[in-house]
Fold this sequence. Notes:
Elements: E1 3-5, E2 10-15, E3 18-23, E4 33-34, E5 38-40, E6 46-48, H1 50-53, E7 58-59, E8 61-67, E9 76-81, E10 86-89, E11 97-104, E12 116-121, E13 124-129, E14 144-149, E15 153-160, E16 166-173, E17 176-181, E18 186-191
Parallel strand pairs: 11-17
Antiparallel strand pairs: 1-2, 2-3, 4-7, 5-6, 8-9, 9-10, 11-14, 12-13, 12-15, 15-16, 17-18
Amino acid sequence: MVFLENVGRRSRVDAGEFSFWVELGDKSLNGNEANRLFRNEGDGRFRDVAWVAGAARREDARSVVATDVDADGDLDLVVQNFEDEVRLLVNEGPCGHFLSVRLRGTASGRQAIGARVELTAGGRTQTREVRTTAGYLSGVSLACHFGLGAATRVERLVVHWPSGARTVLEDLPADRHLVVTEDGEVLPGPDVSSARPGQG
């Protein structure tokens, strides 16, 4: 069995009777592994669809951000590789309905970091938290994205603001980008249904 210690530019390798140092230079011991992309099957199982989706690149990926880059209602992936360029994987596959909510705080701070958003649609409740990071070297969008599947309306949206305030909205249409302010104002974003065939 081989053990590595102090992984970095110079690492000690302990292979039983033999012990020696390996010069790594600027190389990484990670990487050259195919990236994975898992789809939630909705029954507690996940399936790797990276090859089908064109995401199974053999690179040294260090961070990934899921965000709606083209504002069409589905999440795209931005992947940063070690000492390489950023890759954008645009989601062009079929998708269900969605609601994207961006918060604008007052007493809670303009970006509303730490706010919790609960959405109920189609009899199912989802929760998102507004934050700036997720995972290793990854920033995230401040928008809370909710996939709604076949549901065309949101039954209830509740925002729990860091200040302790609470905003409750009911009967919202799907396929929208919204801005919700801490004082209860709802500002509509673009209607993207025309950009999504079959969703209008």
